[in-house]
Design a protein that fits this description.
flat
């Protein structure tokens, strides 16, 4: 019953051209072996900050997630500077950062007395969107 329910009836769905256009420059890193629950607190620290400030903060953080997010942030900034030559790195800010769950690697963990447990190696996908700051 719940599977047949949809957000919009088929004849009332908004058309693609009616949806607001997404702005910003995107970089994605997929299938990173790091737990999303451990990476998300690092992402919350840099959300909506300028790119230079976010990069400086990530540089001094000891977490593994900080290194992974830093690489993705640098890629998003490079994408922005490549697509728009008038931009400067100081003009950009972290518009959106998303840490999604990826698949899990299942491993066997041998225990005492002939038992075995399952070890889940969690993966995450990191999406960083940077955009220009609004000029006041």
């Amino acid at each position: 019953m719940a599977g047949s329910m949809k957000a919009f009836p088929k004849n009332q769905r908004p058309k693609r051209e009616d949806l607001p256009a997404k702005t910003g420059y995107v970089a994605k890193s997929k299938f990173l072996i790091a737990s999303p629950t451990k990476v998300r607190p690092v992402a919350n620290v840099i959300r909506r900050r300028s790119c230079t400030e976010a990069a400086a903060m990530l540089e001094v953080m000891p977490q593994k997630g900080a290194r992974l997010i830093s690489k993705t942030l640098k890629s998003a900034v490079a994408n922005a500077l490549y697509k728009n030559k008038q931009l400067d790195e100081d003009m950009l800010y972290v518009k959106e950062i998303r840490i999604d769950e990826g698949p899990r690697l299942k491993r066997v963990w041998f225990r005492g007395r002939g038992r075995a447990d399952q070890l889940l190696r969690r993966m995450c996908h990191i999406t960083v969107v940077v955009d220009e700051k609004a000029v006041k």
